[in-house]
Each structure stands twice: as C-alpha cells, then as structure tokens.
C-alpha cells in the first residue's frame, strides 16, 4: 500500500527580469495525505491548479517533498527513491515520454534495458504489450509516423514495461478517440482487479473517474478538500434531493398545488416546471409525500424518479464554493 | 554490473543518430577535419612562411608546427564532439519530452552518460582517422609515435573530456541553454588549452586557469605520445594529474547534474 502523509512541496522561483531577480516561495502542495491500496483505483481530482501534477511527481519520486512522509509497501520513498522507481511507473497523456525516432519495438526494448528487465522476459513482454495496445503490426515502424492515438497507446505499453505494482496515470485518455479510450478504461480495470495493481489516476473526464475509481481525493490550492467514494462525495456535496416528475396533465396550477402540499413536509422545497416535467428540490426524502400529493389531486404519474447527482456536478459545486470563499 | 543501461543507451544513440543524421553528417564532420588541417597548414605556410619562433621549439620540443597544430586541433575536435554529445544528452531528453520517463526509471546515470560518450567516441574516432589520413600530404609526421602510450593517453583523455562534459551538461540543463554555454566554453578551451599554440605564450593568470582545465594537460599528453614518442612511464606525473583533476570534475559534475535534474523536472510544469 502507498501511504503518503502531509506531503508538502515548496518551489523557490525567481521573479522579475535581469540579474538581480527576487526569490519567491511558491507552495505548490501545502498538505496532502492519501493512500493507494493494491487492487484499487484511486482518483486525484483538482480545482484551479490544485497541485495534482506536483503530487504525482512526488509520489513517483521525480520530485522530493519539502516535508512529509511517503511509504510504498513499507519502503521509505523519501530515503530510497530508487527502490520506489523499481515498483512504479507513470503514463501521462499526450505524445511525450517516447522516442520518436525509434520504432515501437525499439522504444520498449530501450525502456526494458533501463528498467533492468531480463532479456528472456523482455522479448515476450514486449510482444504481449504491443498486442495489448494493438501495435503488433506496427512494431518496426518509427514512432514519428504514428498518429496521436498510436503514440499514446505506445506510451501505455511503456508504462507497463517493468510490470509495476503501482501505476500513476496522468490524464491517460486525453486525445484518444472514444473506442480506444473505452479499451483503455477496460484495461485499467483489468490491471487493478485481475493483476492487483494499485492505480492513481487524474482525468478531466468525470465520467471516466466515476466509472473507474474506487476512491477519490479532491485537491484545491495544494490541499485536500474532500475525499470519499463517488457516492459519498456526491451525497455530501448535494445534501438536497432532486426528483423528476412527469404527469398525464401539465399546468401551472398543478405545479403550485403540488408545491403547497410538499411545503407541509419541507418548507424549503423548490418546485420548477420545465419541458413537460416538474423538478423538485428538497432537503428531505419526500418521494412518499410526492406520490400521495399526486394521488390526492387525482393525477396519474407517468414517470417519477430521484435524480442521482453526478461527480461532475459535485466538482462544479465544490469549485463554486471554493471560488466563493476565495472572493468573500 | 550487467551494463544493460550502457549497452541500451549506446544502441539507442546509434539508432537515433543513424536515422536523424544519415551518411552526409559523417561526411560533413570529416570535412571539418579537412578544414582544420587546411587552416593550420595555410596559417603556417602563408602567415608564418614556414618559420616558427625559436622559443616555440624550446617550449614544445619540436619545430614541426603542422604536426603540433593538427594533433592539437583534432584532439580539440574530440573534446567538442564528446562534450556536445554527453553534455547535451539530458537537455535533449528534456526537449524531446523523454526526460521524465527516463528519470522515472531506476537507471544508472554513469552507464547512461558513458553510453552516450562511447557512441560519440566511436563515430568521432572514425572521423579523426579520416582527418589524419587527409593530413598526411600536408606534412604531419607521426613516425615517432608510441602507439601503446598514445592509447593510454587517449583513454585518460577521454576521462578528462567526460569530466568537463558533466560540468558543462549540468550548466546546460540548469540554464536550458545549449548554444551560448557550449560555444563560450569551446571558444575558451580553444584559446587557453594549448590547441594551436603553447600555453606558455599566455599571460600568467590565464595559464593558471588553463592548468585547472584537464583538457590542457590531455592535449599535451596526446601530443608527446604521438609526436615525441614519449613512453607512458615518462608521462606518469601528467597521467596522475589528469586523473586527479578529472575526478574532481566528474564528482562535481555528477553532484551538480543531480541537482540540475531536480530543477529541470520542477520547471517542466512549474
């Protein structure tokens, strides 16, 4: 398991122009603690330059934390970064991290050498990985002739060349078409669930995070502001419930009638009439009262359901709250 | 020590070089050798009119300026090529977007840089051999060369060039500049390290600086083994001095490189 506690990263940057530039401290990450279990997919989301990339760089030992502790399967990552490097890998979105003048096979071979993968294992692993990312027929073609999606797929193979126990995925599906993205998501699940790898993923596609992640951390301005499962995060962020109601009849009077009946149970209820449907927002579970109100009014319910909030809505809400706090 | 990183880096560098710079790159580099020889010959023939000052012979132990300057210039070519390849290796990775994936791996830095160095040594050696053949009609005299001693001098010199490359490489990575830093250093090395004239002609303070650059003594060592036929046992003091000085450069270079790698990685998205 990866256990990071109170990680901080401060950069010293020089401001201004000329020879005598002023030094300034920038706190990219102010305090983050997180855990990644083997076999689990953990999401790291951020709002407004939150410090996600710096966090991933610290967890992958590319950067040393200014403060805090980091252990991977009881190995101290701050003291022994080389031991951590042997057990992890990272896949970033885009077309970087591979040599464009080498072929797909040569790229994987070279990374195999610097990860000290035994030559007996390496050939078979390269073949398996190329097949996995659908590049087995392009293995001897220089990468510079590849499309963006093909380069990205090769990068995924590169990230698996050392058979890492933990994998860091930084926007892995950015720029990929829908089919390849779906295949990749399915493979990420396979890596976690079948091969027991611990995975940390960042993505701007909330649908992807919802589909994949067992647990999510949300950062803002270098600190952790929320954590939990998708369900926990959305429920916690949206403490009110949303219902959608469609009736056989539709009028302003009916909406007002339902609203009056519901206000007896929840004085804060909001009822809106839009596009042949009635949208109800309440802090209480009022599904029973809603059904009863319709029956009493002699209305036939065509459709009624509670609308589950999406993670994206939760993030937008959190973002607004954070912005509001910053302004006021 | 399985040398996988060294072998892998050599193979990768060769493949990239071969694909990026096909045969005409080799021809171009060989022509640089020709121009070097031709330039030295023209200076000697038309500027000095074949005459050298008497103290030149006293200082260098030879009146053969052509051989002196050709060996010096070709050694300088070696310094430039080696420094270019080794010093630029990490900044090239940075520019091509592979620095992070490289740094993610638990690879051995020394093997990586040595791999870069050996590839350059192979290709530059081929260029230098061609250049030496070109230099024969211009009057280079290698009849007194002690090849055994030269080989040792060459290996010791490579170590010296490696040390200089590491220091230059860390500066390049820190400043993210290749042109100003490398060209300034190369011009400086050409002027003070005894490439085309003895360092004794320099003012005292510049001579002191020249002495603490391992290239100066390395050029001298290669010259004496090739031109005076001096055995390596006679040059042990020089060998020890180069090894000691170069080790200091290697240690400082590696320490600086490690720090500059961190700064470069911070700057990528910082």
TrEMBL record, chain A:
PROSITE patterns: ABC_TRANSPORTER_1, ABC_TRANSPORTER_2. GO terms for molecular function: ATP binding; ATP hydrolysis activity. Keywords: ATP-binding, Nucleotide-binding, Transport. The keyword ATP-binding applies. It holds the Pfam family ABC_tran. InterPro entries: AAA+_ATPase, ABC_transporter-like_ATP-bd, ABC_transporter-like_CS, ABC_transporter_ATP-binding, P-loop_NTPase. Residues 7-246 form the ABC transporter domain. SUPFAM superfamilies: P-loop containing nucleoside triphosphate hydrolases. This is ABC transporter ATP-binding protein. It comes from Sedimentibacter hydroxybenzoicus DSM 7310.
From TrEMBL, chain B:
The chain crosses the membrane at residues 21-45, 65-84, 112-136, 148-173, 185-202, 238-257. One of its GO terms (cellular component) is ATP-binding cassette (ABC) transporter complex. One of its GO terms (molecular function) is ABC-type transporter activity. InterPro entries: ABC2_TM, ABC2_TM_bact-type, ABC_2_transport, Nod_factor_ABC_transporter. PANTHER family: NODULATION PROTEIN J. Keywords: Cell membrane, Membrane, Transmembrane, Transmembrane helix, Transport. It is found in: Cell membrane; Membrane. It is a multi-pass membrane protein. This is Transport permease protein. Residues 28-260 form the ABC transmembrane type-2 domain. Belongs to the ABC-2 integral membrane protein family. Its main location: membrane. It comes from the Bacteria. Pfam families: ABC2_membrane.
């Amino acid at each position: 398991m990866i256990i990071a506690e109170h990680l901080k990263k401060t950069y010293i940057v020089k401001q201004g122009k000329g020879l005598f530039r002023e030094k300034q401290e920038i706190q990219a990450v102010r305090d983050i603690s997180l855990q990644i279990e083997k076999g689990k997919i953990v999401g790291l989301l951020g709002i407004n330059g939150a410090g996600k990339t710096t966090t991933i760089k610290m967890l992958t030992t590319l950067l040393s934390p200014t403060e805090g502790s980091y252990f991977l399967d009881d190995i101290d990552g701050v003291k022994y970064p080389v031991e951590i490097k042997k057990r992890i890998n990272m896949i970033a979105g885009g077309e970087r991290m591979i040599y464009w003048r080498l072929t797909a096979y040569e790229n994987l071979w070279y990374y195999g050498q610097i990860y000290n993968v035994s030559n007996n294992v390496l050939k078979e692993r390269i073949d398996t990985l190329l097949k996995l990312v659908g590049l087995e027929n392009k293995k001897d073609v220089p990468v510079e002739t590849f499309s963006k999606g093909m380069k990205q797929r090769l990068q995924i193979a590169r990230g698996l060349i050392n058979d890492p126990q933990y994998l860091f995925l930084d926007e892995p599906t950015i720029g990929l078409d829908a089919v390849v993205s779906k295949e990749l998501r399915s493979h990420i699940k396979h890596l976690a669930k079948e091969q027991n790898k611990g995975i940390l993923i960042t993505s701007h596609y909330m649908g992807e995070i919802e589909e994949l992640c067992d647990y999510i951390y949300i950062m803002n301005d270098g600190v952790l502001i929320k954590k939990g499962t998708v369900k926990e995060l959305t429920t916690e962020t949206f403490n009110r419930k949303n219902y959608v109601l469609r009736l056989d009849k539709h009028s302003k009077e009916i909406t007002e009638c339902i609203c009056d009946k519901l206000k007896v149970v929840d004085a804060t209820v909001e009822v809106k009439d839009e596009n042949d449907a009635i949208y109800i927002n309440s802090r209480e579970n009022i599904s029973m009262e809603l059904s009863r109100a319709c029956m009493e009014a002699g209305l036939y319910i065509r459709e009624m359901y509670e609308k589950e909030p999406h993670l994206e809505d939760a993030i937008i809400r959190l973002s607004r709250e954070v912005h509001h706090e910053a302004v006021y | 020590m399985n040398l996988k990183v060294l072998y892998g880096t050599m193979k990768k560098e060769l493949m990239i070089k071969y694909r990026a710079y096909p045969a005409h790159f080799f021809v171009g580099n060989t022509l640089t050798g020709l121009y070097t020889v031709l330039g030295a010959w023209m200076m000697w023939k038309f500027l000095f009119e074949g005459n050298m000052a008497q103290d030149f012979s006293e200082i260098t132990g030879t009146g053969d300026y052509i051989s002196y300057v050709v060996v010096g210039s070709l050694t300088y070519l070696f310094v430039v090529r080696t420094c270019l390849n080794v010093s630029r290796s990490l900044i090239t990775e940075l520019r091509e977007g592979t620095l992070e994936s490289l740094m993610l791996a638990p690879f051995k830095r020394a093997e990586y840089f040595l791999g870069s160095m050996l590839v350059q040594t192979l290709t530059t050696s081929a260029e230098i051999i061609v250049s030496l053949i070109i230099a024969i009609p211009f009057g280079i005299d290698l009849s007194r060369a002690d090849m055994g001693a030269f080989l040792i001098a060459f290996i010791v010199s490579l170590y010296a060039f490696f040390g200089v490359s590491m220091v230059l490489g860390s500066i390049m990575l820190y400043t993210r500049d290749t042109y100003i830093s490398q060209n300034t250093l190369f011009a400086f090395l050409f002027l003070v390290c005894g490439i085309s004239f003895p360092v004794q002609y320099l003012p005292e303070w510049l001579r002191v600086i020249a002495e603490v650059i391992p290239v100066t003594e390395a050029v001298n060592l290669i010259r004496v083994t090739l031109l005076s036929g001096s055995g390596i046992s006679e040059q042990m003091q020089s060998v020890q001095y180069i090894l000691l000085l170069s080790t200091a450069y290697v240690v400082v270079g590696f320490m600086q490189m490690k720090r500059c790698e961190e700064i470069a990685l911070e700057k990528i998205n910082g």
